[in-house]
Amino acid sequence: MGFRAPEESVLDGLSLSTEYTMTYPDTFFIDLATQAIVAVDGQSFQVRQIRNSGDGEKVATLIRI
């Protein structure tokens, strides 16, 4: 499972991320859906979008609330 926050370096330092994302195996969080509220390190986020990454993982785009 991974978490990426804005201004975190991506693409081997060539760019900065501009959104919060959470990557997780598709066998975890089976009931996770858009609009759900999740907590990461004590901060609350709302799930904006969930997509398959194609390698047995899902990526959830999050909005900090």
Q: Over the alpha carbons, how many angstroms does the gyration radius reach?
A: 12 Å
What is the total domain count? Answer: 1
Q: Judging from the principal axes of the Cα atoms, what is the shape?
A: globular
Strand content bin:
over 45%
Give the biggest sheet.
Answer: 5 strands, antiparallel
Report the mean per-residue pLDDT as an integer: 85
Low-pLDDT residue spans: none
Order of helices and strands: EEEEEEE
How many helices? 0
Spatially, the strands of the biggest sheet line up as 1-4-7-6-5
What structural class should be given to the helix and strand makeup? mainly beta
Count of DSSP strands: 7
Helical proportion, percent range: under 10%
Distance between the termini: 21 Å
Structure description:
With 65 residues, this protein is mostly beta strands. It has one domain. The chain has strands at 2-4, 9-10, 15-16, 20-25, 37-40, 43-52, 57-64. The strands form 2 sheets. The protein has a 5-stranded antiparallel β-sheet, with no helix packed on it. A two-stranded antiparallel ribbon has the order 2-3. Strand 5 (37-40) and strand 6 form a beta hairpin. The protein starts with a strand and ends with a strand.
Give the topology.
Blueprint: E1 2-4, E2 9-10, E3 15-16, E4 20-25, E5 37-40, E6 43-52, E7 57-64
Antiparallel strand pairs: 1-4, 2-3, 4-7, 5-6, 6-7
Key phrases:
65 residues; 0% helix; single chain; mainly beta; two-stranded antiparallel sheet; 5-stranded antiparallel sheet
